[in-house]
Specification:
This protein is an alpha/beta fold. It is built from ten helices and seven strands.
Length: 258
């Protein structure tokens, strides 16, 4: 993995979503770097780590992150939330807190989980990637922005930034889709031992807003906040609000109150 560091103060790690890279977090980094040390991650196969052959296996990636950046709060967006959550579950002594942004413990809808997408969506994306790699990624960007009150602005930013570090590796994208399709960490949430904040966009078309409060209700002491008029990337269209929620959470942790 590639990690860029900026800022000063308590550590906050940022992990991006499927097919993206850490550069998408620039709006948050710009707003938080005066108070926090931001460690911005590019997962294997993405961004500056696009040449890495390391598998997208959340447990192993989480172990590496807490080794390289001990004592951080970890923020995960979408797929990145699975790595952040794994770090908090497996290494509570090395993780001070968890922020999940549009990141569900289960992405696929089920009989006991109405807060997901169709069980064919990720398989369909995988098939489409094989037929039209770039076109499928462009379609995914539109889906991420869909629903937001600033959808055109968000889509423009996504298109400008998504490939500025090169296209993600096809191998990593297919591994990510398999993860999103199969993952279900709901049974582990009651054992989450670190404070957590669950942020959602009310208009998210990929992770229904109901997923976040439902997940937070399973974790002891967790808090859930829905960002009005935001979609799957709320830190693009509502950066001030998202940054304020993260700052408030960080300040609530022991030792961060000043």
């Amino acid at each position: 993995m590639h990690i860029e560091t900026r800022g000063q103060g308590p550590a906050l790690g940022l992990i991006h979503g499927w097919a993206m890279h850490g550069g998408l977090f620039t709006p948050l980094v710009d707003r938080l770097a005066e108070r926090y040390t931001l460690h911005v991650v590019d997962l294997p196969g993405h961004g500056h780590a696009r040449g890495s052959e390391t598998p997208l296996e959340p447990r192993a990636l989480a172990a590496e992150l807490v080794r390289r950046v001990p004592g951080a709060v970890w923020l995960g967006w979408s797929l990145g939330g699975q790595v952040a959550l794994r770090a908090a579950l497996d290494h509570p002594d090395a993780v001070r807190g968890l922020v999940m942004v549009a990141a569900s413990p289960r992405f696929v809808r089920g009989d006991d989980w109405p807060h997901g997408v169709s069980n064919t969506l990720f398989g369909d994306f995988g098939d489409a990637l094989r037929r039209d790699f770039r076109g499928t990624l462009e379609g995914f960007l539109a889906l991420e922005a869909l629903g937001s009150s600033s959808a055109q602005h968000e889509l423009r930013k996504l298109r400008e930034q998504a490939f500025e570090r090169g296209e993600p590796a096809p191998r990593a994208l297919h591994e990510g889709l398999s993860l999103l399709d199969a993952l279900d960490l709901r049974d582990e949430l009651p054992s989450l031992a670190v404070p957590s904040l669950w942020l959602s966009g009310k208009r998210d078309r990929l992770v229904p807003a109901g997923a976040m409060p439902a997940a937070a209700a399973m974790a002891h002491g967790a808090r859930s906040v829905a960002i009005a008029n935001a979609g799957h990337a709320p830190f693009l269209g509502a950066a001030d609000e998202v940054a304020a929620e993260i700052d408030g959470f960080m300040r609530s942790l022991p030792g961060n109150a000043s």
